[in-house]
Amino acid sequence: MKLSHRITNITGGGSDGWDVFYKARRMIAEGIPVTELTIGEHDIRTSPAILEAMNRSATSGHTGYAMVPGTLSLRKSVAARIAARTGVPTTAENILITPGGQAALFAAHMAVCDPGDTAVYIDPYYATYPGTIRGAGAVPKAIVTTPDTAFQPTSAALQEATKGVASLLVNTPNNPTGVVYGQETLAAIARACIANDLWLISDEVYDTQVWEGHHVSPRSLPGMEERTLVVGSMSKSHAMTGSRVGWICGPAEAISRIINLATHTTYGVAGFIQDAADFALKQGDAVEEEVAAPFRRRRALTMQALAGQNVVRAVPAQGAMYVMLDLRATGMSGDAFANALLDAEHIAVMPGESFGAAAAGHVRVAMTIADDQYLDALNRLIAFASELAAQ
User: Fold this and answer.
1) What is the pLDDT of residues 11-59, one digit of tens each?
2) How many other C-beta atoms are found inside a 10 Å radius of the C-beta of residue 196?
3) DSSP labels for 116-161?
4) String of b and e for 44-54 (b: at least 16 CB within 10 Å)?
5) Which residue among 74, 128, 163, 227 has its CA within the 20 to 30 Å range from the CA of 374?
6) Which residues are CB-contacts of 59 (< 8 A; sequence separation ≥ 6)?
7) Among 187, 213, 183, 217, CA closest to 316
8) Distance (Å, rounded) from C-alpha 29 to C-alpha 23?
9) Phi, psi (deg, nearest 5) at residue 212
10) CB-based burial label for 4 (10 Å; 0-12, 13-18, 19+)
11) Which long-range contacts (C-beta less than 8 Å, at least 24 apart) are formed by 25-34?
12) Which residues, in sequence order, are CB contacts of 356 under 8 Å at separation 6+?
């Protein structure tokens, strides 16, 4: 039987970008030790206090169907968090709770793109972006950035690429590059959206992980509130990756329509998980800072390890739990380097090419293992790259 083009074309007919990751997992299954610096999974787990709140909710009976838009208490907590951080008045009517940020990304594109519409995103990109757009029935189109601009899109590129399209997807702090978009870039994004009358989908799941500068939500810029859907998540901010709880924030009319979509797809998020997320948000910023602290520390370790040599260079690591390393001095592609590093040193990193054409010759390193192990792996990576460059 024939399957739909939508489902068979999600990866565009090519690799999904995770080949090195799968290879590393096969090695581990065969009993070969591998240091994994691939995926954005915290090396700490969800706080016991959050798990206790989850257990209390479940054992007290909140295990049936929860309200599809999300519990009113959690929606209010998310709205209050967004209002306090951005200065934009936000209420529960602006919030839909989703099964993680990925479901929010899909729902947002379903909401603003008709079949065949063009949806734009920035290259380098999080690996699921093009597939999410294809899954929503739209046509993905990349704005390819360059290392010279720290992988931030230029105003000219934004204006040209957004003519006649339905939506623009941006991500700051950025995965995979670790770059935090500056005022000039954000202003250019807003100008392009307004001039070309399109929706902005702003993926802000790393908003608590900023090491340099400040996170500014594009929704807070003049003229952007009514045309922006913000994607958020508890995964990165509270180490609740497996709990699958996120949200979309946007105009009340858009959210009411996306609730209809959720009714016919996910049918909401488990009530006891929502209660745990609500509890977590009500603990305040200190909890989020505690979760972010290891990555701030490891980012400093990375900068120290890279000092004094010029073979391996870091893209400005201003936020998120990753650092993007420029390996072009070795003469290798990111994919070739990552495979060689895995074979020789049993260290797994993600090739830059997994995140688009712009990051060729780079690798993404997840700062997600204990400090001493991380520093050892990073030093071995630098030494390996230096040997290749000297050949």
Assistant:
1) 886 666 789 999 999 999 999 999 999 999 999 999 999 999 999 999 9
2) 17
3) T-EEEEEES--TTHHHHHHHTT-EEEEEE--GGGTTPPPHHHHHHH
4) eebbeebeebb
5) 128
6) none
7) 213
8) 10
9) -135, 140
10) exposed
11) 27/342, 27/346, 32/346, 33/346, 34/342, 34/346, 34/347, 34/348
12) 123, 124, 125, 142, 144
Look at phi and psi of residue 215 and say left if phi exceeds 0, alpha if psi is from -120 to 50, else beta: beta
- HSE, side-chain direction, 13 A CA sphere, residue 181: 28
Q: Which tokens in the block code for residue 206? A: 């790393």
Quote the Cα angle for 262-175-84, to 5°: 65
* Domain ranges across the chain: 5-45+286-390, 64-283
- The token duo for 122 is 């920035």
Question: Which class for 135: exposed (0-12), middle (13-18), buried (19 or more C-beta within 10 A)?
Answer: middle
List, in order, residues 6 or more apart from 77 with CB less than 8 Å away: 277, 278, 281, 282
CATH code at 64-283: 3.40.640.10
| The two structure tokens encoding residue 12 | 């565009």
**For the stretch 253-264, what's the b/e string if a residue is b when 16 or more beta carbons lie within 10 angstroms of its beta carbon?**
ebbeebbebbee
DSSP class per residue in 1-25: -PPPHHHHTTTTTS--S-HHHHHHH
- SS3 call for 80: helix
pLDDT tens for each residue of 103-124: 999 999 999 999 999 999 999 9
The CA-CA-CA angle for residues 8, 241, 221, to 5°, reads 85
pTM above 0.90, yes or no: yes
| 342, 355 Cβ separation under 8 angstroms | no
Under CATH, to which class is 5-45+286-390 assigned? alpha beta
Tokens of 258: 């996306």
HSE-up (13 A, CA, CB side) for residue 61: 0
Q: In what order do the strands lie in the sheet with 167-171?
A: 95-98, 246-249, 228-233, 199-203, 167-171, 118-123, 139-144
